[in-house]
Amino acid sequence: MADSEDIKENKNYFPDIPARHEGFYLKGAHQLDWGMRNRLARIFRPESGRTVMLAIDHGYFLGPTTGLERVDVTIMPLLEYADALMCTRGILRSTIPASFGNGVVMRSSGGPSTLKELSNEHIAVDIDDAIRMNVSAMAVQVYIGGEFETQSVHNMTQLVDMGLRYGIPTLGVTAVGKDLMRDARYLGLATRICAELGAQVVKTYYCAEGFETVTAACPVPIVMAGGKKLPELEALTMAYSAVSQGAAGVDMGRNIFQSDAPAAMIQAVGKVVHELMKPKQAYDCYLTLKNEQATARKRA
Ligand code: R5P
């Protein structure tokens, strides 16, 4: 307890210095509670306002996806380069060290496997467990135009309500089934619905034409989903185009962990996302790092 005698009396209230009331660096987040902003700050770097999120949640409907057969072997070396990790609670508890200090975006919907109708998802975690796992956000698939569209939107709004209760943001993931479009009109519809209904962050695919209209019309940050594996230069070019057109970073999986040199690739993606490095230069970085890592492996 503080002493009650010999108290220093010359207090200074700095009356000439107005109290600071800072906004927040993320779109649409300036009126959120402190806890929610703090969690968002674990995902999005304050210096750039963007994130390199590593998506490894594919197993929740695909099983042991190529590159994720042994998360402990293939993903662990990448963690130091990821601003945030998107994964299931099963992988988080079983495999990811609790010392991982960056953002964790926990897959919070699920149900059908790739053998069934994917849009028939339900909420797959209890909010108590999200709190227990100290996650930075909960991710939920939203199937606009899909067979179970309303159910998937309802999953998201329920998570938003629970997340608001405890300061945990919800990431609405606009799912694109095989029959759904990937043009700016569709992506604009899907992302805006997620934001209107409360998602604090939205994930969507890139489209070559009009992506800037998708990000402009979404009042919260959009992160770009990677999609199927592309040659590295193409993937870096897509990431560059997305962030140049207003995306607050990427949530990339296969284009990183299925790369010939995943650690080199995630670092090159980081250069693009945080430094807006041009794709060709980032690709050169990728090749240099890839060669250095191959040489180091030979020496070991
Ligand atoms: C799938 O729905 C999951 O949310 C993945 O996290 C997502 O597809 C991103 O991974 P990728 O970059 O491999 O498409």
Q: Can you describe what's shown?
A:
This protein is an alpha/beta fold and 300 residues long. It has one domain (34-259): TIM Barrel (Alpha-Beta Barrel). The protein contains twelve helices and ten strands. The strands form two sheets. An eight-stranded parallel beta barrel has the order 1-2-3-6-7-8-9-10, surrounded by six helices. It has a two-stranded antiparallel sheet with strand order 4-5. Helix 9 (232-244) packs parallel to helix 11. The mean pLDDT is 94. Bound molecules: ribose-5-phosphate (R5P). Residues 55, 57-58, 86, 173, 225-227, 251-255 line the site of ribose-5-phosphate.
CATH fold description: TIM Barrel
Which class in CATH terms? Alpha Beta
Small-molecule binders here are: ribose-5-phosphate
The figure for the number of domains is 1
Arrangement of strands in the largest sheet: 1-2-3-6-7-8-9-10
The CATH homologous superfamily corresponds to: Aldolase class I
Mean pLDDT: 94
Radius of gyration: 21 Å
Distance between the termini: 56 Å
Tell how many strands the DSSP assignment holds: 10
* CATH architecture verdict: Alpha-Beta Barrel
Low-pLDDT regions: none
Salient structural properties:
alpha/beta, globular, two-stranded antiparallel sheet, binds ribose-5-phosphate, eight-stranded parallel barrel
